[in-house]
Amino acid sequence: LDRKTMSTAKSVFAWLLCLFSCTFAHTNFVLMLADDMGWGDTTYNGGVAHTPHLDAMSESPHSMKFTRFYAGGPVCSPTRATFLTGRNHNRDCIYTANVGRHTADFVIPEGMALPTDSFTIARAARAANYSTAHFGKWHLGDFKPLKGGNTKWPVSHPGKQGYEHWYATERSAPSCTINCGCFLPIQNCITGHYGGTNFSCTNYYMPNATAPHGISPEPRKEPGDDSLWLVNQFEDWLKEHHTKPFLVTIWFHAVHVQFLATQHYRNMYAGHGYSSAQLDYYGDLTAMDVQVGRIRALLKQYNIYNNTWLSFASDNGPEGDNAGPNGDAKWPGSTNGLRGRKRSLCEGGIRVPGIIEWPETIKNNTVTHYPAATFDYLPTIMDILGVNSSHPSWPIDGHTLLPLLKHNISTRPKPMGWEYQVRPHHEPTSLPQTPWPTTSFDDPDSEDEQYIQGLSKDEYGHHAAWMDNKWKLYADVDKKNDNITAVYLYNLEHDKTESHNVADRHPTIVQKMRQELDAWRASVIVSQKGPNESQCYGTCQHLC
Questions:
Q1: What is the dihedral of CA 521, 526, 532, 538, to 10 degrees?
Q2: In sequence order, what DSSP letters do the residues of 192-261 get, joined into one string?
Q3: What letter would DSSP give residue 295?
Q4: What percent of the chain has a predicted confidence (pLDDT) above 90?
Q5: Which SS3 state, helix, strand or coil, does residue 326 take?
Q6: Per DSSP, which regions of 242-349 are E strands?
Q7: pLDDT tens-digit profile of 315-364?
Q8: What are phi and psi of 287, to 5 degrees?
Q9: What 3-state class would DSSP assign to 357?
Q10: Are 347 and 335 in contact, with CB atoms under 8 Å apart?
């Protein structure tokens, strides 16, 4: 061959090699989410449970550990909505934990399910020709229509939100032998500190085009730890899809009630004076942590570790601020001194463990005090993939984290907002006349009703929060007219426990942040009213 031909051949070869390598090197995404795990529940944040794999992930030379990572809401469904859409959950009237058809008289309309035309991280990935899959808890809508054709609870499973493959439960479930109650006779269920209780049927579902409603339940009985079982499904999927760019969400059931651990993990904490509930809680955390390590190992096994974004967070703070289970004085989850717990907009209710490991971009282990949240996932993924929303006029509340991940910037350019009201899912026609719920209501499945009895109105009730880097404005909201009645200002740089209200010392900051909060709350109502967005205003009235 002459020199010109050789040169042309080399160029073609180099072009083909670049084409292949560039395609294969696209960033993959694996986004993990724990359930009800407190900021202080990891070993690296001072927790009791052994979490060596999360510790290793946080200490990796290619990871960023957040000291201020936030859930987009203080309970399950709201945060999961923000995780997928980058929008505050109230914009779509997902104002508390979804209970779907469990509400007998359907007094709460369709605003509880994630609208099926939402632009999600899965749809962003599909727009870039990625494979998409979801594994674990869903809690954003029912999987099949109600008997009798009741349309108040539209089907909104992962397949309706951009996921090609999914293996999921509709809502929370025991973290061991999860579907034990689905197989008769009910036996050999792991019940831990719940004693001889046999739980009701909660099963995994998956797509099946030939089955009724296009889905099938898991036909096998889960034998033990649910985190292990869940990652088994992920591994099976990964074997077939690791050569193509992908986005996967893995939403663990651990450590939501009913938190359970196999005897192996309970035994790790035996002999130290822990209660049976604590043995289950700490064992459940460690069992999940082992699977985090396994996911990291799988990425390395398939040689995709370097070009995969792997993240971990929790959907809210730890359960319970009253007497704990089984007569325990308190609940086992830890905020490590942060004020408030699940359902609270204080730091303990929304500040959660947060890690991102991404070797192709993060070159040195970094600990950042930059405030970030689950609603930042979508704009960041859009930024990385170079895709646009199918609803460009719909407000996105999050902000891309790419400048932080690339350059370790310290100042967040966009404030963050929350609003939440603790109240029963089974809403009566008139609201309770007390400032905050103090009595039980009539829906036994309502999470809010089971764990908030006798709690302080300072931490529970109807509240809003607006955060701008070190400053946090915390607001009391009147349930009846939706007006803000009091505000408190905290400098989180020096007062992460929110012990010192400094509003009187900084009136200018309070005025500016209050104006921003008012404008943001008004924009949420605009989103609810449509006409081009959720159009859910009125399904939840002023409560959203």
A1: 100
A2: GGGTT--PPP---EEE-TTSGGGEEE--SPP-SBHHHHHHHHHHHHHHHHTTS-EEEEEE--TTSSS---
A3: H
A4: 73
A5: helix
A6: 246-251, 308-314
A7: 999 998 778 888 899 999 999 999 999 999 999 999 999 999 999 999 99
A8: -60, -40
A9: strand
A10: yes
The pLDDT of residue 427: 34
Written as one letter, the residue type at 213 is H
User: pLDDT higher for 380 or 327?
Assistant: 380
Tally Cβ neighbours within 10 Å of residue 358. Answer: 24
- Of residues 125 and 92, which shows the higher confidence score? 125
Q: Which residues contact 81 (CB under 8 A, 6 or more apart)?
A: 72, 73, 87, 89, 92, 94, 114, 140
Closest alpha carbon to 101 in 93, 110, 91, 92: 110
Q: For residue 409, how many C-alpha atoms fall within 13 Å in the half-sphere facing its CB?
A: 12
400-418 tens-digit pLDDT: 999 999 999 999 999 999 9
Tokens of 178: 């999860």
Distance (Å, whole) CA 131 – CA 35: 25
Looking at the predicted structure, is the pLDDT value of residue 96 above 60?
Answer: yes
Token reading at 373: 């949240």
Quick one: pLDDT at residue 542? 39
25-50 pLDDT tens trace:
599 999 999 999 999 999 999 999 99
For residues 506, 507, 511, 512, the Cα torsion angle rounded to the nearest 10 degrees is -30
Is-above-0.70 flag for pTM? yes
Q: At residue 420, what is the residue type? A: Y
End-to-end CA distance of the chain: 73
Digit-coded pLDDT (tens) for 487-510: 999 999 999 999 999 999 999 999
159 DSSP 8-state letter: G
CA–CA separation, 223 and 229 (whole Å): 8
SS3 (DSSP) at 289: helix
According to DSSP, the β-strands at 246-251 and 308-314 are unpaired
Look at residue 135 and give its three-state secondary structure: strand
The DSSP output letter for 427 is: -
Rounded to an integer, what distance in angstroms lies between the CA atom of residue 15 and that of residue 105? Answer: 63
Is pLDDT at 397 greater than 50 in this prediction?
A: yes
Amino acid at 159: G
- The rounded distance, in Å, linking the Cα atoms of 256 and 442 is 22
Inter-residue contact 28 to 307 (CB < 8 Å): yes
For residue 354, give the H/E element and its range.
strand 351-357
Position 435 pLDDT exceeds 80: no
How does DSSP assign 87-98, residue by residue?
S-GGGGT--S--
Q: What angle do CA 420, 395, 487 make, to 5 degrees?
A: 35
